[in-house]
């Protein structure tokens, strides 16, 4: 079949973009052709159909979003503007489907979190009008985020985030979402955790990756504590800075690979101030890391996989995650981690058997002692990462992804 992924963007190193590429890879292995439609597409998301209006940062989409979550009641003309704009996006989606003869669409979080309200409405209307078979992949529901509680579009959210329509098979990335979707909207969904290709070990760094330390200004004997996430508040990066401060180890350098800009505010500037005041060694290298290798401002750009081999340990202090793509990536690269026990870690990842230095918001003396052992005890480190790799291979592998996708497509056949 020809399968079309639809989202706000398929670019960069956010979890949705990364998981989309994994789904596409497995679907191609199963003999299907994959195509991409979004407001932003990088070189990995090809062949593609660009709809700039589908991006959550498009001026009209952003305006509609900001209005929607500013007050419990909105003027009538808001809905006229919303549906007119959504209808223009729907028309472009139909062109995408016609151009590539798409048989199944896979909305990636676009029917889940209302960052792009017009896109979600457009996809819902498309499904209603065309009855196209749909495998909807949900990463973050709106009712899980405080910032969406006050809104003037509850009927729109009820209708489109996500829609309960016959041609749709739903998939959630954690079991809690699966249960709440059934409880809140009466919709059954398949469970599809974040995955990695554990059957194929992580590649050894090549000559390009071996330049990483030199280019970003790190010495060969620096012990890198890697924060391999975007700079958004729910990542709890200040907790990792506090951990570094308490460790007080001159060998360590805290390295943040992610970029800022997906959420309003000045979290990144505040983090840099916190790091400076804490007296730790740190680097924010978002300008040097992207989803693909390349060049920017006259210097090389690395992908995340170039950075991981250089890390001594990984911090994952998130307050909330839909699942934890970067955590599973850490397991895949056989790196030890320090993790804040966010809800989905406790419900889906820890019960599978993953081992880590754990803390719950507070950095305790035990946290410091356990982390110091992780830093200095090579045998302890090695045993942990090998154990975690085996757990990942069993529970978070491409074999799991393939099984769920086959099941989902089989369910669509009966619709």
Can you tell me about this structure?
This protein is 42% helix and 16% strand. It is α/β, with parallel strands linked by helices and 415 residues long. A seven-stranded parallel beta sheet has the order 3-2-1-4-5-6-7, sandwiched between helices. It has a six-stranded parallel beta sheet with strand order 10-9-8-14-15-16, sandwiched between helices. It has a three-stranded mixed beta sheet with strand order 11-13-12. The chain is globular and about 60 Å long. The mean pLDDT is 96.
Indicate the topology.
Blueprint: E1 2-6, H1 15-29, E2 33-38, E3 48-50, H2 59-68, H3 76-100, E4 104-107, H4 117-130, E5 133-138, H5 154-160, E6 168-172, H6 175-185, E7 189-191, H7 212-216, E8 223-227, H8 237-247, E9 252-256, H9 267-278, E10 282-284, E11 289-290, E12 294-296, E13 299-303, H10 304-307, E14 311-316, H11 325-332, E15 337-340, H12 343-349, E16 357-359, H13 365-376, H14 378-395, H15 398-413
Parallel strand pairs: 1-2, 1-4, 2-3, 4-5, 5-6, 6-7, 8-9, 8-14, 9-10, 11-13, 14-15, 15-16
Antiparallel strand pairs: 12-13
Helix pairs in contact: 1-15, 2-3, 3-4, 8-9
Strand content: 15-25%
Task: Tell me the number of helical segments per DSSP (H or I, 4 or more residues long).
Answer: 15
Whole-number radius of gyration? 22 Å
Helix amount: 40-55%
Query: What is the 3D form?
Result: globular
Could you tell me the mean pLDDT?
A: 96
Strand order in the sheet with the most strands: 3-2-1-4-5-6-7
Task: Name the structural class.
Answer: alpha/beta
Profile the largest sheet. 7 strands, parallel
Count of individual beta strands: 16
Q: Between the first and last Cα atoms, what is the distance in angstroms?
A: 16 Å
């Amino acid at each position: 079949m020809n399968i079309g992924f639809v989202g706000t963007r398929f670019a960069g190193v956010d979890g949705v973009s990364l998981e989309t590429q994994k789904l596409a890879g497995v679907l191609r292995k199963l003999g299907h052709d994959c195509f991409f439609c979004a407001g932003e597409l990088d070189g990995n998301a090809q062949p593609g159909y660009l709809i700039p209006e589908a991006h959550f940062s498009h001026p009209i989409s952003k305006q509609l979003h900001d209005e929607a979550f500013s007050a419990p009641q909105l003027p009538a003309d808001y809905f006229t503007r919303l549906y007119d704009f959504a209808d223009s996006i729907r028309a472009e989606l139909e062109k995408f489907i016609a151009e590539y003869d798409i048989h199944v669409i896979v909305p990636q979080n676009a029917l889940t979190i209302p960052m792009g309200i017009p896109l979600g409405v457009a996809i819902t209307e498309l499904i209603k009008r065309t009855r196209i078979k749909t495998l909807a992949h949900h990463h973050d529901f709106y009712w899980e985020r405080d910032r969406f509680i006050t809104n003037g579009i509850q009927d729109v959210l009820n209708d489109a985030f996500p829609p309960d329509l016959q041609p749709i098979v739903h998939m959630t990335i954690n079991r809690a979402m699966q249960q709440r979707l059934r409880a809140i909207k009466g919709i059954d969904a398949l469970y599809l955790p974040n995955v990695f290709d554990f059957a194929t070990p992580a590649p050894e760094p090549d000559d390009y990756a071996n330049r990483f330390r030199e280019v970003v200004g790190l010495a060969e004997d620096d012990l890198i504590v890697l924060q391999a996430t975007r700079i958004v508040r729910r990542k709890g990066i200040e907790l990792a800075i506090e951990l570094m401060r308490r460790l007080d180890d001159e060998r360590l350098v805290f390295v943040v690979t992610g970029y800022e800009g997906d959420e309003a505010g000045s979290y990144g500037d505040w983090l840099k101030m916190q790091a400076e005041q804490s007296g730790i060694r740190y680097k924010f290298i978002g300008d040097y890391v992207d989803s693909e290798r390349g060049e920017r401002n006259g210097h090389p750009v690395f992908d995340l996989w170039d950075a991981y081999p250089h890390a001594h340990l990984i911090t994952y202090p998130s307050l909330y995650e839909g699942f934890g793509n970067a955590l599973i990536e850490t397991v895949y690269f056989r790196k030890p981690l320090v993790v804040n026990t966010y809800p989905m870690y406790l419900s889906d990842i820890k019960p599978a058997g993953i081992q880590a230095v754990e803390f719950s918001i507070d950095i305790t003396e035990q946290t410091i002692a356990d982390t110091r052992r992780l830093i200095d005890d090579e045998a302890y480190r090695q045993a942990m990462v090998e154990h975690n790799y085996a757990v990942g291979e069993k529970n978070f592998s491409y074999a799991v992804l393939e099984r769920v996708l086959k099941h989902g497509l089989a369910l669509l056949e009966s619709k």
